[in-house]
Design goal:
The structure is a single chain. By secondary structure, the protein is an alpha+beta fold. The chain has 3 domains: about 70 residues, no CATH class; about 80 residues, no CATH class; about 35 residues, no CATH class. The protein is built from 7 helices and 11 strands. Helix 3 crosses helix 5. The protein is globular and about 50 Å long.
Length: about 210
């Protein structure tokens, strides 16, 4: 949450249940903090600090100050709950930034992805979980077969996290190596996200189609 401004995606207020929370800036405001606060992108917390740790978010809907640095998002907590482990266990082996893929394929798994652009996906079912390359558009995952080291049990995640981490890093590294840079937005994207000419990503192609026409 450090350094972010605006409504924090995935941070559901425990008071009112709405996703309307912005970061709290503690201490003497500096720079553009006042302007950001006027625009509702941050909240000014003042100089009186809590020795046990300051809340890092304030809900714009109900005014509740809540959360601590490093708390999981709603999707990250959902992933930990599905895996039946604590969030620190997931964080240690698989890192942060997980978000649920909606709607996901109807293959018996509940899918989450991490990275921006997405670099790793995890599918959880009743038996355990699999790690796989993210897909640009959902389709049957023929590559996600419980073989080749992609299938893990919940016990492996808890007691042998290094094995899970190694597989996750191998997949993410391979995905990052395949990224291409869009000549229009100058952002990386997987090769599947480019149009036929491979000159711009599909998002830019759709956004600027009227210009080319």
């Amino acid at each position: 949450m450090s350094g972010a401004v605006g409504i924090q995606a995935g941070r559901v207020c425990p008071g009112c249940g709405r996703e309307e929370s912005v970061p709290i800036v503690w201490g003497m405001p500096a720079g553009d903090s006042f302007e950001l606060a006027e625009r509702g992108l941050v909240s000014l917390g003042g100089c009186l600090r809590d020795p046990e740790g300051d809340p890092v978010l304030e809900c714009r809907a109900c005014g509740l100050a809540w959360g601590r640095e490093g708390d999981p998002t709603a999707d990250e907590q959902a992933l930990a709950d599905l895996l039946r482990v604590t969030w620190p266990t997931v964080l240690r082996a698989l890192g942060a930034g997980w978000r649920w893929e909606d709607p996901g394929p109807e293959d018996g798994f509940r899918w989450f992805v991490s990275g921006e652009p997405a670099q790793l996906s995890i599918g959880v079912d009743a038996v355990g979980f699999v790690l796989a390359r993210p897909l640009v558009a959902w389709s049957p995952r023929q590559d996600v077969v419980p073989s080749g080291g992609l299938r893990f049990t919940r016990e492996q995640l808890q007691w042998f996290p290094a094995e899970v981490t190694a597989e996750a890093e191998a997949i993410a590294t391979g995905v990052r190596r395949s990224f291409r840079w869009c000549r229009t937005c100058r952002r990386p994207a997987p090769p599947e996200a480019f149009d036929r000419t491979e000159r711009m990503c599909t998002a830019c192609d759709e956004a600027y189609a009227h210009v080319a026409g």
